[in-house]
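Hey, resending since the last one bounced:
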Amino acid sequence: MTTIRKAIIPAAGYGTGFLPATKALAKEMLPIVDKPIIQFIVEEALASGIEEILIVTGKTKRPIEDHFDSNIELENNLESKGKAELLELVKSTPQAKLYFIRQSYPKGLGDAILQAKAFVADEPFAVLLGDNIMESEVPVTKQLMDVFEQKRAANLAVIEIDSADSKKYGMVEVSDPTSESTLYNVKRFVEKPEPQDAPSNLAIAGRYILTPQIFNILEQIAPGIEDEIQLTDAINELNRTQRVFAKKIDGTRHDVGNKLGYMKKSIEYGLIHPETKDEFKQYLIDLSDKL
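The structure tokens again:
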């Protein structure tokens, strides 16, 4: 197998958790201060060494493509007005090898990944979910790529959660950790179990390294929970013939797929953004006195 060169970012969901804002706007384009969610995800992939990225989109998602394209009219306007800093900001949008494909029908995450079969061909690849922003010294995707280089096997990121929240996540049953202590052999995955049925407190954190054999499984697997093609079901099948590892990540996961997580990340990013951090910090101090 070759090194990991390609990544898939599924971005085809309806974003119902943010209605009515997402009725005509892609959830992935919601800004964290002034940067769309999807840009954080693409930047992580690039920082990890990914060379080519396929974004799986759906209806109302065209603004994602426009965001990563050049905007000559805007650039000319900013240049003519001498707004050099804004011009540089517009041009700084990642100029990666980005490709786009539509998932015509919302059949689940597994089906979205299946749309990338021709793009991936016979290479191992990364998957970065668009509603998880990771904060870490070493990009989380790179951490998984390093595991692949060592083990030559599929693996995915996990985090520890409160067991009461298990029905929000895909949960992982693992055997004892390997000698690396943060790397586990996977026994099975359980999609959104009730707390009493959760096999552990380890939840899938939206980053995966998969082998191309997953596509044959996705083509044959029956719909699972919510009558959708579940990626976790397919990885369970993959785990029958190939080792799959769970890597407890070194970093922080921000679930921006729900309102509270989105608000928390926006506040934290606002506190480090060079244009907002000082005044925003003082605003929060003043506001806290009123709460």
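The first helix runs from residue 37 to 47.

Sorry for the duplicate.
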